[in-house]
Amino acid sequence: METSDNATEAPDEAPVPTGIAAQDWATASAEPQYRAAVVDLLGALAYGELAAFERLAEDAKLAPTLGDKAALAKMASAEFHHFEQITDRLTAVEEAPTKAMEPFAKPLDDFHRQTAPSDWLEGLVKAYVGDSIASDFYREIAARLDSDTRSLVISVLDDTGHGNFAVEKVRAAIEADPRVGGRLALWARRLMGEALSQAQRVVADRDALSTMLVGGVADGFDLAEVGRMFSRITEAHTKRMAALGLAA
């Protein structure tokens, strides 16, 4: 088999973690503000996973076939397992999971109430778009967390299979009726705007989290980087829309 001209070049090396990212939880959590930020982050992530479980279970009721219903039920089960991983971690570091989640329950519930899908396809697009935006956001932050917390966050962001499932079903629906594409594209744009606005409001309301994003306890994160982060999230959303067969 032929090789490309650059096949012998050394692969790019991952950047060496520095600051908090090079520390473990026992060391990093000695800083009270960092500890508070991580508790907030895990509380938000835990409630997000619980809400995802509830939403997928509800979506399963709208599924047009038994196979679709079973697939969504399996994904819901995976989301609940992620929820348990996070709450177990909070308990292990002597933080009450319900107390950590409480500040994020109303904002997330409000978001889901304001973006309630009207049918099966809108539900698929909402889960795909909303969960992907949240995952991108948490992955951006994870790079600057201590090694133990980073490993946990990355592990609970593992794909449950919903992305491929949603792409397959939405593309099939558009192929069967192209008019569906315009409606779902408008719906996805609305979801993107609501999700980003909600994320920004939540961060602004939590001092420890906002400090983590703009500097202070998180090394190298400044206001300009926050802007670049949201630009990267928006770009990833555009690519996912294309995968769905929708205009961003």
From TrEMBL:
Domain Ferritin-like intervals: 32-216
Entry superkingdom: Bacteria
CDD domains: Ferritin_like
InterPro entries in UniProt: Ferritin-like, Ferritin-like_SF, Ferritin_actino
Protein name: Ferritin-like domain-containing protein
Organism for this UniProt entry: Streptomyces pratensis (strain ATCC 33331 / IAF-45CD)
